[in-house]
Fold these 2 entries.
Entry 1:
Amino acid sequence: MIRTLTTGLALAALMGTAAFAETFEVQMLNKGSDGERMVFEPAFVQAVPGDTIKFIAADKSHNAEINAGMLPEGAEVFSGKINEEFEVTLDVEGVYGVICKPHFAMGMVMTIALGDVDAPEDFLAGRVPPKAKQRFEAQLDNL
Ligand SMILES: [Cu+2]
């Protein structure tokens, strides 16, 4: 009897968590509200497993995709098409580096932190253009 009750409560807690999963909208813009060119806004999202990130093609010619190696172990790579609005639900805790392929060199990047995580040491170990690196570093300062 007690056991059943406990299981029921645990289930309710689980379902409660799912019901409160959030969706974060990220705009892909030619110009941000701070005047910077080629940006994701917001450029940093703090979320928890089960949350969804929705990329909005507010301006044309942008996409959102995981940069090579910039995701937690066991997480799935995602890649949106140019001008495509799409959403992705993330389940693996860690730090995700997202880029717009056409504007990577111009620094169009963003960071998603899933869970209470630190920046991985090798996050910027790959080939990252200077402007993108600068912005990633600023985003990682949020951790
Ligand atoms: Cu872009």
Entry 2:
Amino acid sequence: MDKRYNTYNKFLKDKFGVKVHKLIIDAGFSCPNRDGTISSDGCIFCDEVGSFGSTHSNKLSIKEQILEGIEILPKRFKAQKYIAYFQAFSNTYKPASELERIYNEAFVDDRIVGISIGTRPDCIDKEKIKIISKLKFPQIELGLQSIHNDTLKLINRGHDFDCFLRAYEMIKEAGINVCVHTIFGLPNENRSMMIETIEKLAELKIDGIKFHMLTVLRGSKLAQYADRIDAMSEEDYCNLVCDSLEILPPTTTIQRLPGSGLKSELISPLWIEHKFHTTNLIDKIMIQRNSFQGSKYQAR
Ligand code: SF4
């Protein structure tokens, strides 16, 4: 079924001619919000694997992780092309002099058609951006979560919205594709505040977005308050995602609708385990509304 929003899968298929699979890499990076540089506590939702959401381990080298992926995925999915996704923790949090070698290790052969690097806005600078800009089909995934500084403080992000804007502008100046991560259901945020975050991202005309629902994972700070968290229902979340899709520009690629954590670590909300059910509900609501991504987008 054709989607009523601009999926990243379709964007990649149009660009490379076949479905492109992401190979998740744990390159052994850390995070200044966990190693004591900014804080030792981390963001309140972050678990011990740095919101890795995978069973991979950095005991394998980057090259070994890639080779393992391109050995397994063709058997399961007839996969042919891949993007190396540096996901765990903050993947620019090393001196610039080391980064080039680290990223290039992922390009084992021509089947690796691009690279996606997840990081924090305060872990990037012009020198690092220049290194990334020279890689094949680079994308930076930038954690924001909310534009509201009170929320960012409450969730212990360790940076404010201006910091995000500075990083975003530097990356865009270098011509690199940026995918922004947001979270719905953060403490003290009402629906209007969540929509304000999406409206601001629409104004920036971001290249891509990953929507997440706040999840309580074992090992996170949030787990201590699990019984006090009034999690959003699946229906409310899906309606909010549909409202957001309508506001975003049609060009923004939708890279994730429901977030997903490691099932074994999940405390709440339990509906997040059924990713396909949530995606189907979003599709159904868009059809019921007879709506499309960008139907309420206002170019500025
Ligand atoms: S920035 Fe990412 S890795 Fe660092 S504490 Fe926050 S969620 Fe965890």
